[in-house]
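Key result, reporting period 2: structure in, sequence out.
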């Protein structure tokens, strides 16, 4: 709730989410990819976006690095900053789904509390949790950004999986392990769950 008593929302005067979903012929949802750095979240989100776009769906990817270099560039990686990072992302996501857009969010979002907070803001009925459960050993072998090496050397603090914990989801809507499944197999598994939820039924 806003602390400013001079704020007067005009949600009752603007077009509804349903109006926009009818225009786009889709149901807007937030697909929330969670997992360790290097697990394959962004790769899967990007490939899924291509598939959905090819089939006529309007989407928007929100990715950790892009968000932290822009709207959240004043935040670090303490527990408080991580929570604020996810809060802002969730509020942006909420605006996008009310515009009828399917949002693909790729964020480590390491704790159950953080992800639960995101779901509360976005709405449980709008939130599809996708856990990319690739083991840390595989993520560290990939280490395309050199982040695990820097974390092991103490050059990066509060790095998830090294000196900051990751709490796996208890019951995600979809779970894929990119050390076992190919990208195509992972996408097939995700789309099987997602497609019925975003298909527009008259």
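The corresponding designed sequence is given below.
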């Amino acid at each position: 709730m806003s602390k400013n008593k001079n704020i007067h929302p005009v949600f009752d005067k603007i077009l509804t989410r349903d109006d926009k979903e009818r225009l786009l012929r889709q149901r807007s949802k937030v697909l929330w990819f969670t997992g360790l750095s290097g697990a394959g979240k962004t790769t899967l989100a990007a490939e899924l976006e291509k598939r959905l776009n090819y089939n006529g769906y309007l989407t928007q990817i929100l990715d950790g690095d892009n968000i932290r270099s822009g709207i959240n560039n004043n935040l670090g990686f303490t527990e408080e900053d991580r929570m604020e990072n996810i809060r802002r992302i969730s509020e942006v996501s909420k605006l996008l789904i009310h515009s009828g857009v399917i949002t693909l969010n790729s964020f480590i979002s390491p704790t159950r509390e953080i992800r639960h907070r995101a779901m509360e803001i976005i709405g449980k009925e709008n939130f599809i949790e996708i856990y990319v459960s690739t083991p840390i050993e595989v993520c560290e072998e990939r280490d395309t950004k050199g982040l695990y090496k820097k974390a092991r050397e103490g050059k990066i603090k509060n790095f998830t999986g090294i000196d900051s914990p990751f709490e796996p989801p208890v019951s995600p809507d979809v779970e894929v392990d990119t050390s076992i499944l190919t990208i195509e197999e992972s996408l097939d598994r995700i789309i099987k769950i997602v497609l019925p939820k975003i298909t527009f039924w008259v």
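The mean pLDDT is 90. The longest strand covers residues 127-132. This case is discussed further under Risks and Mitigation.
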